[in-house]
Structure formats: structure tokens, C-alpha cells
Amino acid sequence: MAIQRMDNVLIVVEDLDTVIAFFVELGMELEGRMPVEGPWVERIIGIDGARQEIAMLRVPDGPGRIELAMFHTPKGAAPEKDTPVNTPGLRRVMFAVDDIEDTVARLRGHGAELVGEIVRFEDLYLLCYVRGPEGIVVGLAEELR
Hints:
Shape: globular
Radius of gyration: 16 Å
CATH superfamily of the largest domain: 2,3-Dihydroxybiphenyl 1,2-Dioxygenase, domain 1
Order of helices and strands: EHEHEEEHEEEE
CATH class of the largest domain: Alpha Beta
Strand content: 35-45%
């Protein structure tokens, strides 16, 4: 028995439009968006009365996806927006990019801020973390050729 693939990572958000715009600016493509509710959803996630809207974004020409979910009911607890990256739990999603400086500049137009700074790892990569809308941390890596 082996894993076939990783389908997606789920991020629960409060403002679906803003977060979609952020990931589209990063270069992801919106596959679809739809409401999700009903007994089957309640049974899967273990929450009665769950009503949500989801959006699926994919990496162009790649297998990676991010699913965004905005719950209409019930509302969840508000997370801390500036949780440090060493806090236990899922802290970031990492993407390889062609031009890290340009990517950071474009994402700043969507409210992103550098967590630290852009650093060089040996002669292999430029790396950084940006904190986007709703405190979502995205890692960026530019391969040095």
C-alpha cells in the first residue's frame, strides 16, 4: 500500500475573495469555486450545520493544489494573525518561483509583508517567507542557476 499523491492543502479563511486574489497573483490558477453543505459534509468534518464556500487553486502545469474554505456556519475561533513560524502546527506552504524579488513586490500589492528577509542559501537558492492576507505564511524559493 502506497500513497498515490498529495491532492491539496486546506486553508480556512474569512475573506475568500481576498485570499483567492493573493494566490492568483502568486501564479496559481482558480479551478473552481462552489458552496458545500449537507449531511455528507457534516459527516466528513464532524461539524453539524456546516455551510461553507470552497475554492480550489492549482499550480499551473503541476500537481499542487490549495483548497480554500470560508465557513458561513458555524464560525470558528479567530486565529492569531502573526503567529511565529516556530509555533507547532502547519506554518507555511512553499513555492518555487522564477523571480523572488518580483514575486514579493507583486504580493505586497495584496498586503503581503516579508516575515524576515530574502536570504541566499549557499549557491543554490534565494529564500524568504511572506505573510499574506489573514496571516497566511508562504515560503518562496528561487533556484540560482
